[in-house]
Design brief:
By secondary structure, the chain is an alpha+beta fold. It contains 2 helices and 6 strands. The protein has a single domain, classed as hypothetical protein PF0899 fold, CATH 3.30.2320. Helix content is 28%, strand content 35%. The structure holds zinc ion.
């Protein structure tokens, strides 16, 4: 289950941030998950709760924002929005695009106290 390793890296990022700030604990973790990232938000928050137990991030609230996926259409030379890997370009109807954004997951903000 790869949500578990993602949760582990989120906890590492959050706890090292809390230590760097000299804070007691992490209260909120904001994540952005691209529309085409293969991440199950429910499984991720569940894994986060398990992995963060006993760390500075224990009990932190995880807020997930789903980002749009963007792609570059080769025939049009335009950036388009896609929702699935099977989508065609809305301008030319061709499936000749390269994903430029939307398959990533990152920590956008941390709240500590
Ligand atoms: Zn196109």
């Amino acid at each position: 289950m790869h949500e578990l390793s993602l949760a582990q890296s989120i906890v590492e990022i959050a706890t090292s941030h809390a230590r760097a700030e000299g804070s007691g604990r992490v209260t909120k973790v904001f994540l952005k998950i691209g529309a085409l990232a293969h991440v199950d938000p429910g499984a991720l928050t569940f894994a986060f709760d398990a992995v963060s137990a006993g760390t500075l991030a224990e009990g932190a609230e995880v807020i997930i924002e789903r980002g749009a996926a963007k792609a570059f259409c080769v025939p049009c030379g335009l950036t388009i929005e896609v929702a699935t890997h099977a989508d065609v370009c809305p301008h030319c109807g061709v499936h000749q695009w390269m994903l430029t954004e939307g398959d990533e997951m990152r920590v956008t903000e941390l709240e500590v106290e």
